């Protein structure tokens, strides 16, 4: 009898214990913590213009440190060398011909410029409305992240009207053309006039206990080149001209703001729970004798306009490595991040997960396309199509818009500044790459 009482007691205790124990499986699900995601975007900076990329004078200690702590691809590319379409591709993961933000300003037949740039014309905003409306139909990274409860914040450069058009929950850019909205308005103050708004967004997400996506795309080192005086004085003795010194100083000023952002996240104890991704929207080569850029850079099909280091850092999760061989694209940023956080990847993305070795090994090439600054349709505005492989790069001019230009072929591994056109003596390579390009071109 005593044994029966003891057994009954044990069963009762067990039943009570089991009833009081929470469902550990569901509890685990509730405690899943998704990492924050921070996109850092430089604006108008050549791939050569970083300390870790070997520049003799420009100092970028914060970006250099980020490069050492990241899976850093030194042979990254943007699909086009102009800010508006480049940024649209970064946030959507698709080529300009797919999101239809082909360039900065839309000009229709019959539009009168009167000798002035399109962006100053009264009809500019009206022409751009269909571009924005079409973009709003697309899925962006902030749209994808809503499924996991992310808050998304926009700061800096943003061409597509109001920040909400990109799926952001909060942002600095109002996009109202009647109040001077074109490519960032108040958003362009971030970095140049401090970082407080950005910090406030981070604090808001932490207060709400939400993972956040931060778009930090400051108007740096973009012109106007008006760096802090101390930085200018630092570079004046080293540079061939004041114009170059100002640009070099702007690169370091941008680097300082990157350090401020990264340090703030670290101070909040969020470093190990944050994915950092770095890219530049397009290149820039500063002319020595005036404030403009050399045509070999921005808006060109050359590496000084299209190439950029691309970095992925997640402390403890991504093994740091400097990768100087694999070709990657800014189109890879969305699919790579989606895979990192376990979100299903849509089939219509144009990039790959660059941290997946199998996908990297299957990649045959990365591609580019360059349009007129003042665009209308793909057919009317296309200037160049580009294909990059290891080791060759083919530049194919559109005969309709560039009738006097020849096909160009470069060994970008041996000739990174693209000084030796190999096309005349390598017709088989040209033909092979052109065929690859034609097969992948879908419009």
Automatic annotation (TrEMBL):
Domain Sulfatase N-terminal: 35-342
InterPro entries, alphabetized: Alkaline_phosphatase_core_sf, Sulfatase, Sulfatase_N
Key words of the record: Calcium, Hydrolase, Metal-binding, Signal
Domain of life from the UniProt record: Bacteria
Keyword check for Cytoplasm: no
Pfam families the record matches: Sulfatase
Cofactor: Ca(2+)
Calcium as UniProt keyword: yes
PANTHER family linked to this entry: ARYLSULFATASE FAMILY MEMBER, ARYLSULFATASE G
Family note: Belongs to the sulfatase family.
Name of the molecule in the record: Sulfatase
């Amino acid at each position: 009898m005593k044994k029966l009482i003891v057994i009954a007691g044990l069963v009762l205790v067990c039943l009570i214990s089991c009833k009081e124990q929470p469902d550990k499986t569901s509890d685990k699900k509730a405690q899943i913590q998704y990492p924050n995601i921070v996109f850092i975007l430089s604006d108008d900076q050549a791939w050569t213009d970083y300390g870790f990329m070997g520049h003799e004078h420009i100092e970028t200690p914060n970006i250099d440190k980020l490069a050492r702590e990241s899976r850093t691809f030194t042979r990254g590319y943007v699909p086009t060398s102009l800010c508006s379409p480049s940024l649209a591709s970064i946030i959507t993961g698709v080529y300009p011909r797919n999101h239809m933000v082909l360039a900065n300003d839309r000009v229709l037949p019959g539009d009168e410029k009167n000798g002035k740039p399109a962006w100053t014309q009264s009809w500019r905003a009206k022409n751009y409305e269909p571009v924005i409306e079409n973009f709003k139909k697309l899925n962006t990274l902030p749209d994808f992240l809503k499924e996991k409860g992310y808050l998304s914040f926009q700061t800096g450069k943003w061409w597509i009207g109001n920040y909400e058009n990109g799926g952001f929950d909060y942002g600095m850019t109002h996009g109202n053309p009647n109040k001077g909205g074109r490519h960032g308005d108040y958003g362009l103050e971030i970095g140049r006039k401090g970082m407080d708004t950005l910090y406030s967004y981070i604090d808001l997400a932490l207060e709400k206990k939400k993972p956040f996506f931060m778009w930090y795309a400051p108007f740096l080192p973009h012109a106007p080149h008006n760096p802090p005086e101390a930085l200018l004085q630092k570079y004046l003795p080293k540079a061939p001209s004041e114009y170059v010194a100002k640009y070099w100083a702007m690169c370091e000023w941008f680097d300082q703001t990157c350090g401020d952002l990264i340090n703030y996240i670290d101070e909040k104890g969020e470093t190990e729970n944050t994915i950092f991704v770095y890219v530049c929207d397009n290149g820039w080569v500063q002319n020595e004798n005036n404030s403009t850029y050399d045509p070999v850079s921005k808006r060109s099909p050359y590496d000084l306009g299209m190439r950029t280091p691309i970095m992925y850092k997640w402390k403890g999760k991504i093994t740091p490595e400097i990768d100087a061989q694999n070709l990657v694209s800014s189109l890879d940023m969305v699919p790579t991040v989606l895979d990192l956080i376990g979100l299903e990847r849509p089939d219509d993305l144009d990039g790959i997960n660059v941290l997946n070795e199998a996908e990297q090994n299957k990649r045959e090439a990365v591609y580019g396309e360059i349009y007129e600054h003042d665009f209308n349709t793909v057919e009317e505005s296309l200037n160049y199509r580009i294909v990059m492989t290891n080791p060759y790069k083919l530049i194919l001019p559109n005969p309709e818009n560039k009738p006097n230009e020849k096909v160009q072929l470069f060994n970008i591994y041996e000739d990174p500044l693209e000084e030796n056109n190999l096309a005349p003596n390598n017709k088989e390579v040209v033909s092979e790459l052109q065929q690859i390009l034609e097969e992948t071109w879908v419009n």
